[in-house]
Amino acid sequence: MSLVKLIDLPSFGDERGGLVAIESNQSIPFDVKRLYYIFNTADKPRGFHAHIDLKQVAVCLKGSCRFILDDGQHKEEVVLDSPTQGLIIEGLVWREMHDFSEDCVLLVLASEHFSEADYIRDYEQFINYVALKIVNYSLEFFEKSWEWLNDEELKYLTMTPDFTKEQQESFFKNLAIRKDYYIYGVSFNEDMIGACGLKNFIEDKAELWLYIGNKEYWGKGLGKKIMKFLESVASQKKLKKLYLKVLKENKVAISLYKKLNYIEIQECNEYIVMEKTL
Ligand code: T46
């Protein structure tokens, strides 16, 4: 499917001049929560980022500029130079804007309020983000997790208690009938790298958990995508809040959770509890 999705905007121009009317969920496929415009450009390229969860329509009201869109597999480009044409930018797409004409005025309509946490501004991180998939927690993942959770460092960081092979097997067998435990595998291209899920449901609240068992994948900014995925599952299940437990010394994880708007609600001996209202 083409990355360049252009739409003709409803145009009511006549001999008095041009008029374009854009309506949420009608002429464009989302509710507009924000608009911004870029002007007085100095022909300096802009963009160079992707968004995790944002739909946008860009309209060049005056002048022209060139967009490059890249989904990690292939790139496409398009010149915007018409106030009656909108470029829909959605999904995990790296965007760059080049060749601004001096008189360019670029209007962008966005489906969400501004959030810096929604930006991926590093290309390598973007490529990693594309490669990461949340998949079914199969027997292969289950067997891997025995290895992962018996690694001393991971066991410590995830606060996993001692467990036997038999206990783990009965846990796996029960998964199919349990309604109070969601578990998913995390893969990177063809590699199985971790697991995540939701547990301990109390009314409209649940505990979020995740780990990357394959240490080669630590520090690549993958946690954010896993968290966003679990939050979307929680929202679909009509949960109102998510909480998580994190070791006090796990500063990297705590900083990620803070960026994603989790706030500390309780301090225990070794760990803190953080919560987010969805
Ligand atoms: C996009 C392309 C097409 C805000 O505080 N609120 C906002 O709504 C926006 C759009 C930006 N900002 C701040 C964030 C930065 O500190 O303004 C500063 C410049 O933003 P940025 O460097 O991201 O601008 P562009 O032109 O590179 O990218 C913009 C949008 O940010 C982005 O979402 O898709 O246009």
Note down, in words, how this protein is organized.
The protein has 278 residues and is an alpha+beta fold. Helix content is 22%, strand content 37%. The strands form three sheets. A seven-stranded mixed β-sheet has the order 11-12-13-14-15-17-16, with helices on both faces. The chain has a five-stranded antiparallel β-sheet with strand order 1-7-4-9-2, with no helix packed on it. The protein is elongated and about 80 Å long. The two termini are 32 Å apart. The model has no long low-confidence stretch (mean pLDDT 95). DTDP-4-keto-6-deoxyglucose binds next to strand 2, strand 3 and strand 4.
Topology overview:
Blueprint: E1 5-8, E2 34-38, E3 46-51, E4 56-62, E5 65-70, E6 75-80, E7 85-89, E8 94-98, E9 105-110, E10 119-120, H1 123-131, E11 132-136, H2 139-149, H3 152-157, H4 165-175, E12 182-188, E13 191-202, E14 205-212, H5 223-236, E15 241-247, H6 251-259, E16 263-267, E17 271-277
Parallel strand pairs: 14-15
Antiparallel strand pairs: 1-7, 2-9, 3-8, 3-10, 4-7, 4-9, 5-6, 5-8, 11-12, 12-13, 13-14, 15-17, 16-17
The structure holds dTDP-4-keto-6-deoxyglucose.
